Amino acid sequence: MKTLRLFDTLTRQAREVKPIDGSTLRFYCCGPTVYGPAHIGNFRTFVLQDVFRRMVELGGVATLHVRNITDVDDKTIRDSQAAGKSLLDFTQAWTERFHADCEKLDCFPPHVEPSAVAHIPQQIAMIERLIEAGNAYASDDGSVYFKISSFPEYGKLAHLETQDLDMGRTANSRSNTDEYEKDSVADFVLWKSRRPGDGENFWQSPWGEGRPGWHLECSAMIEEYLGTDFDLHSGGVDLVFPHHENEIAQSRCACGGDFAAHWFHITHLLVDGGKMSKSLGNLYTLDDLADKGHGAMEVRYVLAGGHYRRPLNFTLGSLDDARSALLRIARFDQALADAGAAPAPSFAELVESSAVYELGDLQPAWESLSDDLNTPEALGHVFTAIKGADAKSLDSEAATKWRCALHVILGTLGLTLPNPDTSADESEIPDEVKELAQQRWDAKQAKDWGAADRLRDELAALGWVVKDTKDGYSMERI
Ligand code: AMP
Ligand code: ZN
Asked: What is the pTM of this model?
């Protein structure tokens, strides 16, 4: 394998990522809670996990990627009832939407995608083992809690200081909610007894009717699909505490073993310099951005292009920059083709070949990716190399090599290039034309076909034609 070093949240060090069994890298990602469309913050995490997987596979190691679907929790129950749908119908529809969005972003589907509701018996069995081992106890109302004072290593992943973990205090405090803050460290809920608001969403258990706590599903599904020891666990940084801390406590106490060998956490996406929120109107979905004329590849470029350990500030302007950047690469790729380069290899073909060993001018880009997945530095190297290269002077063999190397880096980042013949660079389009094109797009979204046609004619008079694409539009000179 080509070495990949990645920061590990537990040891706070960059460590080499390698499969315990020497052949397949087995990793788990906490998946979406399916009660609405995923936003671009969620997709920052899923895209980076996809880049990680692509990097491992191109490095010559097979992967086993498990990602769950959270289809029962407070939010899914609340919103399915508000929508007047069964929990199953409600979560299935949002799961399908999530899959469609992932496909638009070219994220590989996980090899296994288990859901919480489909693993209730496994979760109950895990609670029984925890009670038997003295790590959990039932309360009077039929809920069951994990006793964190029974697990001395609690808090190690989140690097909680001893004062945060006053076991004397926490011994008597409990939290029945799925998420809580560090200053309220408490015994957490494994089984929630049935509440009136739960409607029909409950299951029978040795402690009466109820449902599992949110943290438990990942532990149960990891045991089922990855066993007690596996290579890497990942999620957004908000999951370090309490979710992942609680997973470790449950799994280590119920199953033994070391649990995850490596922890990969992705820093949150900010929008316009702040937290995303519905009330600020900046909680974007892929559809919201498509409505503004931006395709999923532009979104992927922005999300993949930030270093995963630094906050990434998303702005609509960054999508325009992404469009220009992709077009610059596409034009260079076209120049290589014109110089006689063979067609660009697909990702699967690259994995089969030893393309990563012959990267020429793009070797530094690969080194950046290998060094803690430094995607912005890698893209910087791509542009430096493109600037320094004269595609026209290459013979077909050299052009083919260059093209192959370029597609190794693009394949790792999961970027597909636009058609350079039909797309215009943002900087080449006059503001007036951009404004009219956006107005036409808005008119189309509003199904005002008359206005849309009139604006198309105005654009044509200025020498521009709008081409609608799968999820946006591009501009061409007539
Ligand atoms: P959820 O659907 O809320 O369970 O979250 C799915 C994934 O998205 C988890 O790994 C979260 O940690 C991650 N996530 C949530 N918000 C953001 C954000 N603003 N930036 C990056 N990742 C996020
Ligand atoms: Zn999880």
From this structure: 0.89
